[in-house]
Description:
2 domains; globular; four-stranded mixed beta sheet; alpha+beta
Amino acid sequence: MRYQITGKQIDIGEALQTHVKDNLAEVFEKYAGRPTDAMVVFSRDAHEFVCEATVHLSTGLTAQAKAHATEIYASFDGCSEKMEKQLRRYKRRLKDHHKDRTTPVELMQGSSYILAASDTPEELEPDTLQPMIIAEMETSIPTLSVGEAVMQMEIAGAPVLVFRNDKQKTGVNIVYRRDDGNIGWIDPN
């Protein structure tokens, strides 16, 4: 497993890095089994330390957690507890998907764009229908089953997930959380 432990304008010592690696290894040995990489970022927000952790599993799932505390170790411990709770909640489902999937999830590369929003009333009628692109990034679109996509969306706490359906492997599918609390699935076929 690859670890990337960084700090935003904070020096991260060897003791903290060792604590993070040992703690995450214990959590994933207990619940996930096959993580591929973990990214942990520490930062400050006024008087608090913030710890954000993102872990990619070989099944294509991404677990994310974030915690605040007045001490840096406490912020990581809170973040680790949240991630452990997520994985414990989905342990049975994760095990079921581990049995079915023998290879890591296929990823398709795509482009992600951030479009400028109009905030002023005079911009309600745009001059052109072409929006202004203010950022362009590369993104990965996983090939998952619908059940895996819903689980990935729930673990990440995301409102929407774009994926390629494992059964058809053509086009993209979307799962999203509806206003009524249910999950919606858009399948173009």
